[in-house]
Amino acid sequence: MRTLISPSLPPLFSLHLPRPSLFSTALRASRYPLTAPAFSLNRLPSNPHRSSSSRRELQTEAASKSKPFSAPPGEIHVVVGPMFSGKTTTLLRRILSERESGKKVAVIKSDKDDRYCAESIVTHDGEKFPCWALPDLNSFKERFGFDAYRNQLDVIGIDEAQFFGDLYEFCREAADKEGKTVIVAGLDGDYLRRRFGSVLDLVPVADTVTKLASRCEVCGKRASFTLRKTEERETELIGGAEVYMPVCRSHYVSGQGVLETARAVLDASSQRNATRGLEATSLSPPF
Ligand SMILES: Nc1ncnc2c1ncn2[C@@H]1O[C@H](COP(=O)(O)OP(=O)(O)O)[C@@H](O)[C@H]1O
Ligand SMILES: Cc1cn([C@H]2C[C@H](O)[C@@H](COP(=O)(O)O)O2)c(=O)[nH]c1=O
Ligand SMILES: [Zn+2]
């Protein structure tokens, strides 16, 4: 593997390029487009064939091209865990603390989650904070106002992040290019412990990742998983304690095994009942 940049030398002079590489070709073709902070304008190499005024022109041109990169870098913080583990509570605390320190904040949640209240994020303990309930994250900038987004917003909280298909693109752009701090709360896994939406895709671009735990409803131990108590099998199913319970690993494994069998039995019986005009109902937890 070849090291292209040596940390001990100034960035532009430290490239070891034995023959034209993609990097040097692009650099020549676009006349110094690399104006992100790592490539400081003061270090533009002096070219004996250029006058100092044409160097100044180059620097001005480069400075104007650097605008998209001129926002200070933002941050991405991801908070995951099963249901009832305190994700919304944690998001709320961090948002309040950012606001107390003078930052301008906004919170977004998926409009799919219509439990409790449409215009607020609400914890399972009833704490609330006003939010934008949206179908996707891309619509946020327009709804908030492009100007207000650019100039009057520092911190964005996102709750129920598993429901946003454009989560990864939105967060990366907000933090990398727009200098925003993004705090993301969502389920890492669904009721079958499969990755949920694109929350986990954020891990490589996140500054911090926190996995919270709840208490197992059966034995009181640490609960890292969510068990669905009803017969439904679709991935997305909005609900609270009437549908889901937090469980530890051993109660997930035993419960899920029994529930899957019960779902299969119910499927078969509902098919039989459908032909007789009856309907199957919900399951009881198998503990
Ligand atoms: N089985 C449960 N049913 C209802 N509420 C619960 C249950 N277990 C814990 N809670 C409460 O939910 C709170 C966490 O709520 P919240 O922050 O909304 O969690 P999350 O966003 O992770 O679902 C806990 O502090 C606890 O008081
Ligand atoms: C496990 C699981 C959950 N959901 C839904 C249920 C709730 O509406 C939200 C999670 O809310 P919380 O703030 O984490 O309590 O997600 C789902 O649709 N599918 C699932 O498998
Ligand atoms: Zn348990």
In short:
The chain has 287 residues and is of the alpha/beta class.
Q: How would you characterize the overall build of this protein?
A:
The protein is α/β, with parallel strands linked by helices and 287 residues long. It folds into 3 domains: 16-69, no CATH class; 75-212, P-loop containing nucleotide triphosphate hydrolases (Rossmann fold); 214-287, Wheat Germ Agglutinin (Isolectin 2), domain 1. It contains 7 helices and 12 strands. The strands form 4 sheets. Strands 5-2-6-7-1-8 form a 6-stranded parallel sheet. Strand 3 (120-122) and strand 4 (128-130) form a beta hairpin. The longest helix is centred in the C-terminal third of the chain and has 28 residues, at 249-276. Residues 3-67 have low confidence and may be disordered. Bound molecules: adenosine-5'-diphosphate (ADP), the ligand Cc1cn([C@H]2C[C@H](O)[C@@H](COP(=O)(O)O)O2)c(=O)[nH]c1=O and zinc ion. Ligand LXEULUCI is lined by residues 83, 87-88, 113, 160, 187, 190-191, 226, 235-239, 244. One of its GO terms (molecular function) is thymidine kinase activity. Residues 43-74 are annotated as: Disordered. Keywords: ATP-binding, DNA synthesis, Kinase, Metal-binding, Nucleotide-binding, Transferase, Zinc. Belongs to the thymidine kinase family. This is Thymidine kinase.
